[in-house]
Amino acid sequence: MFRGFYAGTSAMLVQEKMLDVAANNLANVDTAGFRGRIAVNKAFPELLMEKVDGQPGEVYPPKPERWKRRELIGDMAFANVLSETALDLRGGPLRHTGNSLDVAISGEGYFVVQDGAGNVFYTRSGHFLRDGEGRLVTHDGMAVQGQGGGVEFGDASRVSIDEGGQVLADGEVVDLLRVVQFASPTYLRQEGNSLLSETETSGAPEDLENLQLASEFLEMSNVNVVSEMVRMIEANRAYESAAKTVTIQDESAGKLIQTYGRG
After folding, report:
1. Secondary structure of the chain in the HEC alphabet?
2. Vertex 194, ends 187 and 150: CA angle to 5°?
3. Across-strand partners of 169?
4. Structure confidence by residue, pLDDT tens digits, 245-257
5. d(C-alpha 186, C-alpha 85), whole Å
6. Rounded CA gap, 174 and 183, in Å?
7. 33, 124 in Cβ contact below 8 A?
8. For the segment 109-167, what is each residue's pLDDT rounded down to a tens digit?
């Protein structure tokens, strides 16, 4: 009977994560360069259910001498679990801004930016600005990286970025934007807004040559509002069904205890 509790709560946890993913995607629907995430579910193999009376931190399988501390209840299979969330690599729509420092990547690739502490991040957002020190920065103040490090153009009166990624200051090339690619970009970790960081699974960044950029354009979020709303509705309904299952199991357990738990 109590297997129903495990199956129901497992399903609730999966749908809760699905809701979190969809909500985060919707929250960034207007974030330039944002790429949504896709929740990936997978069937889960049978597990041994155990009542553990041993020390905290013990894991299965136990050593033979620890069997006395564990009571095997049986085995069961969960319907599915949330395996991972993967980056949606579909490109977002391009919007013309007329800003000479806005730029969008055609095809795959990521701009390289660095915060004040030296941490390196990657982004599809090419919404760049000029700070008070004559540096090229993101809208939140991170330094945009070129082939020579942070891009600087001093007190130049006219600055622009061409379709080959060259940064021009008063008509002179001062640097070339650094754009990188990854072997498995779906496994990049989101760090907030449109920022990404590499992981062991994504692989190390490799410089992308022969850049093809769209000057005075921004790549917008690739999130489809209608699709995400449908996912949220489906996840909500599935969560409610799983919660109802747990409630029914709880009521059945209560009746069983009332009937046979006397004496």
Report:
1. CCHHHHHHHHHHHHHHHHHHHHHHHHHCCCCCCCCCEEEEEECCCEEEEEEECCCCCCCCCCCHHHHHHEEEEEEEECCCEEEEEEECCCCCCEEECCCCCEEEECCCCEEEEECCCCCEEEECCCEEEECCCCEEEECCCCEEEECCEECECCCCCCEEECCCCEEEECCEEEEEECEEECCCHHHCEEEECCEEECCCCCCCCEECCCCCEEECEEECCCCCHHHHHHHHHHHHHHHHHHHHHHHHHHHHHHHHHHHHCCC
2. 100
3. 159, 172
4. 888 877 787 777 7
5. 9
6. 30
7. yes
8. 999 999 989 999 999 999 999 998 999 999 889 999 999 899 999 888 899 999 999 99
Q: Are 42 and 81 in contact (CB under 8 A)?
A: yes
| 46 within 8 A of 75, measured Cβ to Cβ | yes
What distance in Å separates the CA atoms of residue 215 and residue 168, rounded to the nearest whole number?
12
Q: How far is CA 14 from CA 81, 188, 231, 235, 244, in A?
A: 6, 21, 13, 9, 15
Please state, in angstroms and rounded to a whole number, the distance separating the CA atoms of residues 21 and 124. 19
Compute and round to an integer the Cα radius of gyration of the chain. Answer: 26
Question: How many whole angstroms separate alpha carbon 69 and alpha carbon 89?
Answer: 48
Q: Which residue has the tokens 């701009």?
A: 111
Summarize pLDDT for 16-44 with one digit per residue, the tens.
Answer: 888 999 999 999 999 999 999 888 766 55
Q: What percent of the chain stands above pLDDT 70? A: 80
Global pTM value: 0.74
Query: Can you name the residues that pair with 160 across neighbouring β-strands?
Result: 168
Nearest to 121 by CA among 183, 182, 45, 210: 182
